[in-house]
């Protein structure tokens, strides 16, 4: 059944608003309006609704950060030079620990986590499994930004715990996903709440568990635990016989209390801001349909701060198009990645060639000399602007392969810890 953000009643809107007033980042929770709805009065459904709504808040800042640093895109915003300056390391510029490009997304992810912790304290097994899976996803997003600078994982109480390093953070996220798996297995045949259309194929505990296992595989790849990744993938929704688009999405709409797809722009409009990096087209193999389906060639180039592109992007088709958190296409490539990590090039070939053939390309033979580069190329074109390029190249110490557009530019390895957390 479709969850409709457009017809949320006034009481629910107030509840969600109260939930979204949770501290920015990891600050103390403080409700000052005694007449407003309390957490004790909220239902499981309203908590789940608030969590889903919160996952969409400030997501555009995360996508812009990782896309621009990873040279997938330019964000040409004349009123804010930070997108073309600090994000791209202009003249060696360092990233600002107090800047909105970091703290907006960072704080929103922790607000969602705090709402999830409330749901865990009050929900049944299904609600706990849902909440723990979302916590793992939100923590991983923040860790993707700060990397070796770490994140805070102990945020369940009034006083947040200290920062922990990347290895400990990944271990915690993996453990959280395993705890969620147990909860989901104990949750029965249906959830006690409804999820939005973005989870249409994953709206029962058994199906949602397949999303959980997909996240487990992604984390295991980041840990370079390839056997764990393959095990998790065998329990996920990876399937060469299914649509490559099958997956979990953030749902968008135009109604009251809803949000629009943050990455969509009319590609031939006069004043778009998100441009495809020219290297995406220049480096592509002839005939790759992922280029023609995701890039719009504009009649005139746009130049700002020494950066020029005439390439729009058509990753989303409308302002209400759902945006993926995980797709079958990624899982197929993760399976290839795990096998390549193990040196099983023959086992990786069917998945790599399936993706290539789906994009109109011929098959390749993999070996130790070309397998990793071939994998990274396929992930680059299959998952364009979905938030992976920078993370993938950093994992394999290949950030130096990214283009430098101007003399003095640098590719940042990671973002700093937000100054709000010190």
Written overview of the protein:
The protein has 422 residues and is mainly α. The protein has a domain at 37-329: Serine Threonine Protein Phosphatase 5, Tetratricopeptide repeat (Alpha Horseshoe), CATH 1.25.40.390. 44% of the residues lie in helices and 9% in strands. It has 14 helices and eight strands. The strands form four sheets. Strands 1-5 form a two-stranded antiparallel sheet. A two-stranded antiparallel sheet has the order 2-3. A hairpin with a 2-residue loop joins β6 (295-304) and β7. Residues 1-37 have low confidence and may be disordered.
Topology record:
Blueprint (H helix, E strand, L loop, with lengths): L9 H10 L24 H13 L2 H11 L3 E3 L24 H23 L2 H22 L4 E2 L10 E2 L1 H20 L19 H19 L2 H9 L12 E4 L23 E3 L1 H5 L6 H6 E10 L2 E7 L9 E5 H14 L3 H14 L12 H12 L6 H7 L27
Antiparallel strand pairs: 1-5, 2-3, 4-8, 6-7
Record field, number of beta strands:
8
pLDDT < 50 stretches: 1-37
Largest sheet: 2 strands, antiparallel
Radius of gyration: 21 Å
Strands in their spatial order, largest beta sheet: 1-5
The residue-averaged pLDDT reads 91
Question: Approximately how much beta-strand content do the residues carry?
Answer: 5-15%
- Element string (H = helix, E = strand): HHHEHHEEHHHEEHHEEEHHHH
CATH topology of the domain at 37-329: Serine Threonine Protein Phosphatase 5, Tetratricopeptide repeat
In the CATH scheme, the class of the domain at 37-329 would be Mainly Alpha
Kindly name the structural category: mainly alpha
Number of helices: 14
Shape: globular
Terminus-to-terminus distance = 44 Å
Q: In the CATH classification, which architecture of the domain at 37-329 applies?
A: Alpha Horseshoe
Helix percentage: 40-55%
């Amino acid at each position: 059944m479709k969850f409709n953000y457009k017809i949320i009643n006034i009481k629910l809107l107030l509840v969600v608003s109260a939930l979204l007033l949770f501290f920015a980042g990891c600050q103390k929770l403080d409700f000052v309006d005694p007449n407003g709805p309390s957490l004790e009065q909220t239902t499981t459904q309203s908590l789940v609704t608030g969590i889903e709504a919160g996952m969409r808040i400030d997501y555009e800042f995360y996508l812009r950060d990782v896309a621009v640093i990873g040279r997938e895109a330019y964000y040409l915003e004349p009123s804010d030079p930070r997108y073309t300056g600090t994000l791209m390391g202009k003249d060696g510029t360092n990233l600002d620990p107090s800047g909105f490009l970091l703290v907006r997304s960072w704080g929103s992810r922790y607000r969602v986590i705090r709402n999830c912790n409330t749901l865990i304290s009050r929900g049944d097994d299904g609600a706990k499994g849902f909440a723990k899976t979302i916590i793992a996803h939100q923590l991983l997003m923040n860790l993707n930004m700060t990397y070796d600078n770490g994140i805070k994982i102990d945020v369940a109480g009034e006083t947040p715990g200290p920062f922990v390093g990347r290895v400990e953070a990944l271990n915690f996220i993996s453990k959280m996903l395993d705890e969620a798996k147990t909860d989901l297995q104990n949750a029965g045949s249906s959830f006690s709440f409804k999820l939005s259309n973005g989870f249409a194929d994953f709206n029962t505990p058994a199906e949602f568990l397949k999303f959980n296992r997909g996240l487990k595989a992604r984390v295991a790849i980041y840990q370079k635990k390839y056997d764990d990744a393959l095990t998790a993938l065998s329990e996920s929704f990876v399937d060469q016989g299914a649509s490559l688009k099958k997956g979990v999405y953030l749902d968008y709409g135009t109604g009251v209390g809803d949000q629009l797809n943050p990455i969509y722009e009319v590609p031939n409009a006069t004043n778009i801001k998100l441009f495809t990096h020219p290297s995406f087209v220049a480096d592509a193999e002839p005939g790759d349909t992922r280029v023609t389906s995701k890039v719009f060639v504009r009649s005139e180039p746009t130049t700002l701060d020494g950066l020029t592109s005439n390439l729009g992007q058509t990753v989303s088709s409308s302002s209400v198009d759902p945006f993926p958190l995980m797709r079958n296409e990624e899982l197929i490539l993760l399976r290839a990645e795990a096998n390549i990590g193990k040196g099983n090039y023959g086992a990786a070939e069917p998945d790599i060639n399936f993706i290539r053939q789906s994009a109109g390309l011929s098959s390749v033979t993999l070996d130790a000399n070309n397998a990793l580069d071939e994998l990274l190329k396929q992930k680059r074109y299959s998952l364009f602007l979905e938030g992976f390029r920078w993370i993938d190249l950093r994992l394999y110490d290949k950030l130096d392969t990214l283009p430098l557009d101007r003399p003095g530019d640098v590719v940042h390895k990671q973002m700093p810890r937000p100054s709000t957390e010190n």
